Amino acid sequence: MSEPTTPLTPLTSPAPVTLQRVPSATVRLQLHREFTFDHARALLDDFAALGISHLYTSPITTAQPGSTHGYDVVDPTRVNPELGGEPALERLVDALHARGMGLIVDIVPNHMGVGGAHNAWWLDVLESGPDSAYANFFDIEWQPSNPALRNKVLAPFLGESYADALAGGRLQLAYDDAAARLAIAYYDHRFPIALADYSALLRAGNNDTATHAVADRFAALGTIRSLRTRRERADEARNALRDLATTEAGAAHIAEAVRTLNAQPDQLDALMARQHWRLAHWCTANDEINWRRFFDIGSLAGLRMERAEVFEATHALLFRLYRLGWIDGVRIDHVDGLADPAAYCRQLRRRLQAEHAARPADRLTSHPWIVVEKILAHDEAMRSDWGVDGTSGYDFMNQVGALLHDAHGETALTQGWLEWIGAPAAEAPFSATAVAARRQILHAHFAAELDAAASALHAVAQQERSSHDVTWHAIRRALAEVIVHFPVYRTYASTQQRDAQDTAILQSAMSGAAACLRRIDQPVLGWLDTWLGGQPAGQDKLRQLALRRCQQLSSPVAAKAVEDTACYRYGRLLSRNEVGADPGEFSMSANAFHHAMQKRALTWPHAMLTTATHDHKRGEDVRARLAVLSERPAQWLAAAHQWRTEHAGWVRHLPTGPAPSPAAQWMLYQTLVGIWPAGLDWHDTDAVRELAERVAQWQEKAQREAKLRTDWFAPDAEYEAASRDFVLTLLTGEAAQTFLPSLSAFVQSVAPAAAINGLAQTLLRTTLPGVPDLYQGADFWDPSLVDPDNRRPVDYAARHRALRALQTHADNTLAPLLAHWTDGRIKQAVLARALALRAALPAVFESGDYQPLAVTGSGAQHVFAFARTHGADAIVVIVPLHASALLGHTATPAFATGVWRDTTVCLPSALSQIPLHSAFDGQALQSPRLALGQVLAHLPVALLHT
């Protein structure tokens, strides 16, 4: 990572030390051991100069060693030492405060990282089972229907069968001197042995008095009934073992006992059979897991955050840091995974508020800023009673993306996609792809969770005479179809009767399920309707458990099926296949977008606005470019068919079908159009080779996520190799000499319009109601793909130089940057000027109203404009829409003189008689109507202010 060396000053006057109520603008940083708190600190002058008020970081608590994202937390009570630990965090916070800035952190209440050897809570559970102090921290079913797992935890961490691992000597007993713990070792994994087995192990093969004395301590634990006393005595016994191991004779006895057992596979097997865990191949998890995972990831275990002791233990560090004034708010990861998201958010708000009065006087804000990662389905409203400031912005990313798409291209692109893959028109709706993916994911990846939910519901059925004959299998069949047809991620009924919004959701799911169930099973839907919140659960523990199991099942199924499967199968236009978006919703009209923003201004004025995230499948400017294809469907279809014909000879025909498949080939061409740098010379072999490797890695992930010809569980090596060869042939092999100039020419033809989309998206994000977020490095053009591509190192030195130059000419027009628009500086400049205006007019952006502006004239359909006012202060924002037709064949994202003709934006009366000043080119305008030819004469977007 390149770092700036010369500090920058803000583009506006320094912010006051006392923070505003909510952040003005955030920058998201992905922290890991190669990019630590100190690396972030070195960039603060640049972020301040850009207009950022708060850093917003990935999780800062201790994660699995080497974690590149921080969501696999193993110790929520400590700041991650790989990031520099608490001392480095304090240095960062001090530097932020010196610049009038603050810190927002991502928190992970839903799950923890397990496996490996670093989660002390999890290791204690493996060692002590249901008697562990942390047995109820994790969402474990200790009495599942499978008798082999009663009072045990399935440990699906083996990369091979249990028998092969044991026979191959890869399961070995080991003694850890530091922890004074005996555990089975499997590569980096550790599975602690129950303390009840220590006595026999220590006594085996020796008569040493000291060793036997320690063994007696462990043996005595079994006679103690009090859990608290037993834990105290266990600590004493462990300390005695630690002391024994420091002696030469004791260490030798322990080593000999371990060696002897490892030499006897049958005895080792017998020992493992007695433990509170059951080792298994990782692929068994989907069928037999008896604890809740994060999605279907076996290394992330769900937490019982609804339990008070779990909440307090996992948030103690957060509360302390908030009390110290080190952090000012949080982003809650995967809120839908929690048992009761609403109750959790309200509890978190109360606890942070309780710490508020103790904060330093110079860090007092009116309240902590809290946003949640929430995926909202089409027409799903965010709940307003959670006590949060809104979502983390995936809904906005969807809305602004849809605005950029031209509805006129939908029919042609839909037909072109279906003809390309040879599918009938009946398969056109994305919903059909999503339902098929939901069914596959539920039964193949969440079978164990479905079984557990069905069992919980069956227990409820057996409580009442009227439902006594409702069988487990019938419940499972009916529940499966309800989950498959869920229109949203989940419902939120608790012990009370569900609300009208949840009732409508359930009725939609029930209707879809009824159409797919046999008539004999349809009556079960009535019982499910009752049990899933139709009647209050009250104090009925079985009803509460059943409701929780079902609500915590529908959410991960939706996420894996829609985001991680269907979005990789449905390829009509990949710019609409994004986290939080519905690929079936092709576009959004200007009027609908205005309505959504008016509602946002009234309901969620402080929610986050983002267009790029650590989760995105394609960078914001990749999507902005692909959106241009909705304006030019004929051009895209012609090019794609030409390339398909030219490359037919390099498609391999395997017994399983062509490689790559037609759908994968279509998506590959779109991806190449989306990420090919506008300024890249196709003769630059090194740059093209690097891009080819990125695309090949993306393609492998995309095809595995699609789960059609290959997948993560059982990769088809032959298909994947053939698909990779196809990519390399196109970009660096035999086809390159004809394909690269053709691809480059196509990109050059759409890139100027794409750049206008990118600038419009940037300006809208920074001026609409909400808090704009900048994903790391996206102040320049963002050509990234899905992770890990979107987490590559950022060239901050280049961004630093651009900011320095912008400061030098702070009062000048940005128009000269258009001559070099491909380098990204124009995007950064638009962002910086917009954020500077936010700092100068905070009330307008924090609480100003939102007024759609009428547009008249021949180009009215290509303009989107609005005003925001607060008292005497106001801004006006004007951006082009679907401007490809207006650009002609220009190589620059600028409009020729006369292209807008009679198009004007009508100002409200309050603004029509006062001068408006351009933040981008210094123009002063005053008129009831703003002529687009004048407003957009120097730059393709406009930001005016009083």
From TrEMBL:
<feature type="domain" description="Glycosyl hydrolase family 13 catalytic">
    <location>
        <begin position="36"/>
        <end position="502"/>
    </location>
</feature>
<protein>
    <submittedName>
        <fullName>Maltooligosyl trehalose synthase</fullName>
        <ecNumber>5.4.99.15</ecNumber>
    </submittedName>
</protein>
<dbReference type="InterPro" id="IPR017853">
    <property type="entry name" value="GH"/>
</dbReference>
<dbReference type="GO" id="GO:0047470">
    <property type="term" value="F:(1,4)-alpha-D-glucan 1-alpha-D-glucosylmutase activity"/>
</dbReference>
<keyword id="KW-0413">Isomerase</keyword>
<dbReference type="GO" id="GO:0030980">
    <property type="term" value="P:alpha-glucan catabolic process"/>
</dbReference>
<dbReference type="GO" id="GO:0005992">
    <property type="term" value="P:trehalose biosynthetic process"/>
</dbReference>
<dbReference type="InterPro" id="IPR012767">
    <property type="entry name" value="Trehalose_TreY"/>
</dbReference>
<dbReference type="InterPro" id="IPR006047">
    <property type="entry name" value="GH13_cat_dom"/>
</dbReference>
<dbReference type="Pfam" id="PF00128">
    <property type="entry name" value="Alpha-amylase"/>
</dbReference>
